[in-house]
Amino acid sequence: MTERKSEHIDLIDLLGALANANRLKILSLIIDGELCVSAINAHVDLSEAALSHRLAKLRKLRLIESRRQGTTIYYPCRSQKVRSVFRTLDEICSGLIFGAAISPGT
Predict the structure, then answer these.
(1) Alpha-carbon distance 71 to 77, whole Å?
(2) pTM of the complete model
(3) CB under 8 Å, gap of 24 or more: what pairs does 80-86 form?
(4) What is the pLDDT of residue 40?
(5) Mean pLDDT across the stretch 25-43?
(6) Close Cβ partners of 36 (under 8 Å, ≥ 6 residues apart)
């Protein structure tokens, strides 16, 4: 596979991940820090199984990582591409991207 084709696949994967409301919310929650599953689950309307499925997909796409501490798994987003896209989207949407992640009742 050529490097250019690989870059296109990476872009398609990134945009596909962002096109899902739950994955977008998860990424917005952990973009500037790591959270455990229970902390993420407090902000998304998903069962733990569904949340684990979304986290696994994001890990498979290499958009997030996982770190185990005892029995707790933490999920940080260290992808610079994701950070750049989020910053740009946040500017375009006048703060709605990050503000939605931390607003009351979410």
Answers:
(1) 20
(2) 0.77
(3) 81/10, 81/14, 82/14, 82/27, 82/31, 83/31, 85/14, 85/18, 86/27, 86/28, 86/31
(4) 96
(5) 92
(6) 72, 73, 74, 75
